[in-house]
Amino acid sequence: MSERTLVRAMADGRTMIIRSFRLSLRNIDGLITALALPIMLMLMFVYLFGGAIRTDGRYVDFVVPGVLLVCVGFGAATTAISVAADLTSGVIDRFRSMDVPGEALLNGHVAASVARNLLSSLLVIAVAFAIGFRSDANLAH
Asked: Which is it for the CA torsion 40, 111, 76, 22, positive or negative?
């Protein structure tokens, strides 16, 4: 691969990452759902259903890992829906006519998904610590 081709591929990738971030920010209901749904689920399970199940420890310590998995699953589903929307809307055909590689488009969707997942996970962890979550594991575990 020549240096010019590599530079062009990197520029296409950067453009698609910016496009995917903009699409994420423009989809306000999806963004709010991605950020608020895990927090609402965690609060509901801890405070509404928390006394229904007896555990050896605090119930919040059992709920938080599951809610973090929900964050990841929801992020993957959102990415899949976004890619499917691109495939059905005809934008892929436009990108092909401009000779944009498919890897750049996927890199953009994946980068936006990673950013949404990180933000969602950080919010969940912050709220979890605020309501009393304490892990017994250290950083290596």
From this structure: positive
Domain count, the chain: 1
136 lies in some domain: no
What are 100-137's pLDDT values in tens digits? 887 888 888 889 889 889 999 999 999 999 998 888 77
- Secondary structure E strands in 27-70: none
Q: What is the pLDDT of residues 69-106, one digit of tens each?
A: 988 888 888 888 888 888 899 888 888 888 888 788 88
Q: Is 30 exposed, middle or buried (0-12, 13-18, 19+ CB in 10 A)?
A: middle
Measure CA of the first residue to CA of the last residue in the chain; give whole Å: 41
- pLDDT reported for residue 135: 81
Tokens 């973090």 -> residue: 68
d(CA 35, CA 134): 22
Residue 77 lies in a domain: yes
* Nearest of 55, 57, 37 to residue 116 by alpha carbon: 37
The answer to whether the beta carbons of residues 132 and 57 sit under 8 Å apart is no
